[in-house]
Sequence to fold (398 residues):
Amino acid sequence: MFTSLRPHRHDVLIAVTGLAGGLALWAAGLHTQGGRLFDAHWVALVPLTVTAGLELLRRRLPRTALALGSLALVADQFTTGSLATILMYTDLMYAAVVYGPPAAARRIPVATFLVTVALTIGFFAWVRVPEALLIAVATGLVLFAPALTGVSVRNHREAAEAARLRADQTALLAEMDRVQAVTAERSRMARELHDMVANHLSAIAIHSTAALSIDDPGTSRDALGVIRQNSVDGLAEMRRLIGLLRESGAAGPPSAAPTLASLDALVEQAGANSASSGLTVTLDDGREESGPLPAPVELAAYRIVQESLTNALKHAAPGPVSVRLGRTRRVLTVEVSSVFGDRPGPRAPGSGAGLVGMRERVALLGGTIEAGPAPGDEDARIWRVRAELPVEERTQWG
Fold:
C-alpha cells in the first residue's frame, strides 16, 4: 500500500525540473508581470513551490492537483509572476484530462473553452481595445490548449488499449479454434481407428477362443483361417490409416476411403466371421434414388454398418443379421437388425465406444440415429440400429 502512494518517478522529475527552472528565472529577475498587489519578488516563489509540489499528484490525484493548481495560478496573478508556474499549471491541466476519470476528460475541455470565451468577452468589454484579444490567446494557451492535447492523447491511448484487447481476444479465439480443431481431429481419428480395427479384432478374439476351447482339428483350422484373414485385413486398414496421417506432407494421392460399393465385401466378410456363431448376414439394398453421395455420408454409412456388424458378432444370438439400405431424394437410411439374447460360445468384450462413435458421426452430418429394441417387438428379441443421414451437400461437414 505504501509503495502505491509514492509518486511516479516521471512526476518527481517534472516537479524538480519545474521548481529548478522557476528558481533560475527568479534568481535572474525574470518575471511575467509587475505592479501587483504583492510586489516583493520572493512572494512569487509561494505559488511556484505549491505548483511544483502538486506535480507529484498529477497521476494519483489529477483533479485535486488541478483544483489546487488553479488556486495557485490565481494567486500567482497577484505577484510578479513566474513563467515556470504557468507552464507547470498547463501540465496539471493536461494530466487531469489524461489520467482523470472519463467524465472529467469530457468536461474539462468544455469548461476551459467556455472560460476562455468568457474571459475574452469580459476583457474586451472592459478595456475596449483590440489588444484585449491577446487575452484570449494567452488564456487559450494556458487552459484550452493543454486540455485539448490531453483529449487527443487520451483518445490515442484508449484506441491503442482497445486494439491490444482485440488482439488478445483474437489470439485467444485462435487458440480456442486450434484446440477445438485438434480435439475434433483426435475424435475423428479415434472413431476411424475403432471402426477399422474393432471388427477384425473381435473376430480374432472370438475364433481364437473357440480354437483354444474346442479340441477339434477341423474347428481349429477354420478358426485359424478366419484369424489369419482378419489379421491381414486389419493390418491393411491400419496401413491405410497411417498413410492418411502421413499425407499432409506427401505429394501422392490420398488413400481411398471405404464407400457403400464395398458393402458387399464387408457383409461377406462378416458372414464368414460369424458363421461359427450361428449368424447369417444378408444385405438388402433398396435405394430408390441413384447417383453419387457426398463422401462424408458414404463413409459414415459404411462405418455404421461395420460397427453394427461388429456388435452383432459380439452380442447377437444365433439368427439372421439384416443390413438394409434405403434412399430418397433427401435422406439415406441405414438399418441393421439382429437377434438379441443369449447365445452359446465365446464373446468378445465391448466398451460402448462403438455406439458413441456412431452417434458422433451422425451428429456431425445433422442426421438421426436410434439403437435399441425394434418397435413393435414385444419380446424385445430384435435389436435394431437405424440411422438417417441427409444426402444434400452442405457448405461444411461437421
